[in-house]
Amino acid sequence: MIPRIETVSHTHLSLYIHVPFCVRKCAYCDFASSADSGIPHEEYGAGVIREMEIRAGLLHGQVVAETLYLGGGTPSLLPPDLVAGFVSTARGRYALDPKAEITLEVNPGTVTPEKLAGFREAGVNRISLGVQSLDDRMLAILGRAHTSADAREAVALARGAGFDNLGLDLIHSLPGQTPEAWEEELRRAISLGPEHISAYGLTLEEGTPLHRLRDEGGLTLPDDEIGAILYRMTSDILGAAGYEQYEIANFARPGRRSRHNQVYWRRQSYLGFGAAAHSFLTDTPFGRRRYNIADPAEYLDFLAAGKLPEEASAILTRREAMAETFFLGLRTTEGVDTERFRESFGETAEEVYGPELAYLLGAGLLERRNNRLSIPDRLLVLSNQILVKFV
């Protein structure tokens, strides 16, 4: 039943656990989640722990996990003792560092003081709060199951439970949203005092209710010009409030960047557990990506039969890895380390992407700082047009 022995090229990796349960499927969401899976949380959790144990046995050599992230869906729907089981398994089977960043995604309205205290006792030390908007009209459009008052209460409850590392997720470029309304939302978010703020532009994914509504003419989004204004406002307002922008949509107080998310952008090793979870391992020269079966019931059936619930796996080619290095690295303000690129691939960035780099540097869309290439902060709003050069 064991398909392979997995070897990481270094001893450090991160862990991700996907929780596919939610209270209500939001109108914009295409994530692997459901409000009516019919699967008991404890049964699903036992399956995840079984997968964690099996995959630990396939790793060659000792590893140390430096971050653990529980995402979804809505992980805060789980009981604290189940979260504690995940953390305990990570410590026992993956040598989870005592100083590891352990993040739990929380939706407003799904927690109580007792539940948050239980998460804290389980080892969670960072909360990512899925606020999305602090405007009740926008929350209704998005199909969220909470109000802005619920969001403010969730922040207060998290602080009361002792969490001193709290992030808020927000979405801009919503239907009918004006720069004045977005500025007000940002001011409200800042007033809540989070250590981290993620602010994403709305993307309508095919098959979601909002996508269908837009196609039917029942939904009008801000145009690209307004979207660019909202993006620049985000950077300016959060920057003035002391938040450092370190990625296209992520801002943090000094020392409070998401350690886990930076693993993705740097192409470092991480293991994903649970239905639809993705993994990336440096067990081949240029890395390997894989993802699990998305259906929770089928996922559990595979584990019950002693099989790993793997949907697909792909070993990256050298060219794919080089493209990923630029596509992911240029999302961040630190950019791409060209010396590291040369060491990894045996060619300079100019030898591989000469015409693209010449154009982007000449147009001022990229800048060179010592051995790093990055998008100028003021032009991160144009990242999609720049990153496509490396796809």
Q: Assembly type of the shown chains?
A: single chain
Give the CATH level 1 class of the largest domain.
Alpha Beta
Q: Name the helix and strand elements from N-terminus to C-terminus, one letter apiece.
A: EHEHEHEHHEHEHHEEHEEEHEHEHHEEH
Radius of gyration over alpha carbons? Answer: 21 Å
Shape: globular
Q: How are the strands ordered across the major sheet?
A: 7-8-6-5-4-3-2-1-9
Please, what is the average pLDDT? 92
List keywords for this structure.
Arc Repressor Mutant, subunit A; alpha/beta; 14 helices; three-stranded antiparallel beta sheet; 2 domains; nine-stranded mixed beta sheet; 391 residues; TIM Barrel
Textual characterization of the structure:
With 391 residues, this protein is of the alpha/beta class. It has 2 domains: 12-264, Aldolase class I (TIM Barrel); 322-391, Arc Repressor Mutant, subunit A, CATH 1.10.10. The chain is built from 14 helices and 15 strands. The protein has helices spanning 41-58, 80-94, 113-122, 136-142, 148-160, 179-191, 209-215, 224-240, 259-265, 296-304, 318-329, 338-345, 349-362, 383-387; strands at residues 12-19, 64-72, 101-106, 126-132, 166-172, 196-201, 244-247, 250-252, 270-273, 278-281, 288-292, 310-315, 336-337, 367-369, 372-374. It has a 9-stranded mixed sheet, with helices on both faces. Strands 10-11-12 form a 3-stranded antiparallel sheet, with no helix packed on it. It has a 3-stranded antiparallel sheet with strand order 13-15-14. The mean pLDDT is 92.
